[in-house]
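Section 4.2 – Deliverable D4.2 (structural model, holo form)

The reporting period included a commitment to supply a predicted holo structure for the target in complex with Z5A. Inputs used:
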Amino acid sequence: MAGLFITFEGGEGSGKTTQLKGLLTHLRAEGRDVVETRDPGGTPIGKQIRSLLLNPANGGMAVVTELFLYEASRAQLVREVIRPALAVGRIVLCDRFADSTVAYQGHGRGLDLGLIARLNALAADGLRPDLTVLLDLDPEAGLARVGQRVTPPAERHDRIEGEVLGFHQRVRAGYLAIAAAEPDRVVRLDALHGMAEIEELIRRRVEGLLRSPVRPSGPGILASG
Ligand code: Z5A
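Output (structure tokens):
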């Protein structure tokens, strides 16, 4: 029994969470068994790590500390939630995953991409998404969307959203490099399109995958442990 592992990636305000929820609703309406989670977070330990990472009071966090915290949260999430769900054939929708570390800590912060690849493999236990939906958006447009949310400013601007524009542009370039390198796994969608149009494109792609018998995250293809 092989589950299906789908991740949603993109810069701030690109609409990942909106699209994840749309797909979740659609799949559940079809009677499918779907797990929704997010990285960082998704487990009791991961939630504690998430609040450390996003707390604006932690502006002095060293870049390497940040890297290890993202990897630590992911290691827990894979072992406690994602692997067990896939093992019993469930569909897992995850808001961000290892590509975020490549884009943010690698391209954004300038950490070594080879080191990040090794840490990602360790944290993710070798697990790769079957499909990654990359919502691509100019950072200025994304940050403007996030700024318009009707949440109080103190909750709205977390530590990373407050980074300078150049950082977010490097993150976007990083995502585009990942998409170019792995076209079979990563589908890049223009996040300027309407929500319904994007939702339809994602649905079609997922329906294709659900019909396919071979998936990289399936048991027997990657080692678990
Ligand atoms: N991070 C990292 O550095 N390294 C890592 O390894 C990982 C993460 C895993 C937390 O992520 C932070 O962690 C993040 C990267 C870093 N940096 N920050 N900040 P997060 O996923 O929890 O937070 P986020 O990226 O800030 O997500 P977000 O702000 O919630 O944005 P979103 O999920 O992409 O967008 P949204 O909430 O679905 O939509 C934003 C608004 O746009 C909302 O008002 C929507 O109604 C609107 N929207 C959505 N789609 C559309 C379309 N198509 N048209 C118009 N308006 C739209």
